[in-house]
Amino acid sequence: MVGARPQFVKEAMVSRAARRLGAWRHVLVHSGQHYDCNMSDIFFQQLEIPAPDHFLGVGSGSHGKQTGEVLVRFEEILLSERPDAVLVYGDTNTTLAGALGAVKLRIPVAHVEAGLRQEPRDMPEEINRVLTDRASTLLFCCSERGRTVLADEGIRQGVHVVGDVMYDLYRTMVPSLDPDAALRRWGLRRGAFALATLHRDFNVDRPESLEGILRGLCRVQVETGWPVLLPLHPRTRKRVEEFGLQPFLEPLHVTEPLGYLELLSCLQECALVLTDSGGFQKEAYFAGKRAVVLMPDTAWRELVETGWNLLAAPEEGAIWRASLGALDPYPYPQELYGEGRAAESLVAVLAGASFPS
């Protein structure tokens, strides 16, 4: 079950592996929590993404309304399909609703990206993660840290470290990247620019934190002499205008939001990443780039604990100090998220699992 584009793409990797291995009959349910009608054709072509078997059309809404509507509509699908197990991904309201719907009907739940934890503990995504892990029979971790976290919480049965499906995706998409075209389009030189993304509500919805981050990006540009490429998220652009912070954008290399392939193409050739995106901080690691993570904490703590990525507060000095640290030579921590065969490993475990009838 999926509810947003990142989950859709992860599910595509798993369903493709399941079809290739003849593991089971795969039924795809899309809640419509975030419906993206503009998903690039490249995903459909290269990942062979099928149309959902069931589209719930839930749409946006409050956390309670969204979770409740997914739960009610998904229960009807479960009663008609009678699946052997339900596979859920990540930490959205769809994830929790899918897990609750299944477990209430005594259908085993398999959770992809289990064992992730992040402060503050009361953030909606964190609540969804913890409750989904508690409801799951099979828990698929991206790294050994996930296994350790679950063991500390008393969850030791059904835990499997399979690697990160997003690394599978990254390896699949790399041959489609065109870094030279991206550099030409934006007038950049290889290894002589920083790449930034900024969209988290706790960063952009408060004028003081948004200004602090923009000042930090400007500081990086001034001190290094490199342009900072900032594909500007619509939410961030709106807040910049509301708070009168346009002067802090003017020195930066601001663009419209980039598509997945173009963003990854730029990533291949940048010198430094600054981001508050959970996915992009990992993709930076996949590409061998260190990242300044503009968050008080990250669910991908192994990247910080190994010293590869650095956390930075939304303040000019903190961002520049972390950037200096990230520009220092540092040994690459190998295979934190597997070897790029997470989907196959996951399918093998799930196909071989014995569930009560």
From TrEMBL:
The protein's matches in Pfam families, at most eight in alphabetical order, are given as: Epimerase_2 (PF02350)
Q: Does the keyword ATP-binding apply?
A: no
Keyword set includes Isomerase: yes
Q: Where is the UDP-N-acetylglucosamine 2-epimerase domain?
A: 24-350
Q: Which InterPro entries match?
A: UDP_GlcNAc_Epimerase_2_dom, WecB-like
What molecular function does GO assign, one term?
A: UDP-N-acetylglucosamine 2-epimerase activity
Q: Which UniProt keywords apply?
A: Isomerase
Annotated EC: 5.1.3.14
Q: Which family does it belong to?
A: Belongs to the UDP-N-acetylglucosamine 2-epimerase family.
List the NCBIfam families hit by this protein, alphabetically.
wecB (TIGR00236)
Q: What is this protein called?
A: UDP-N-acetylglucosamine 2-epimerase
Which organism is this entry from? Aminomonas paucivorans DSM 12260
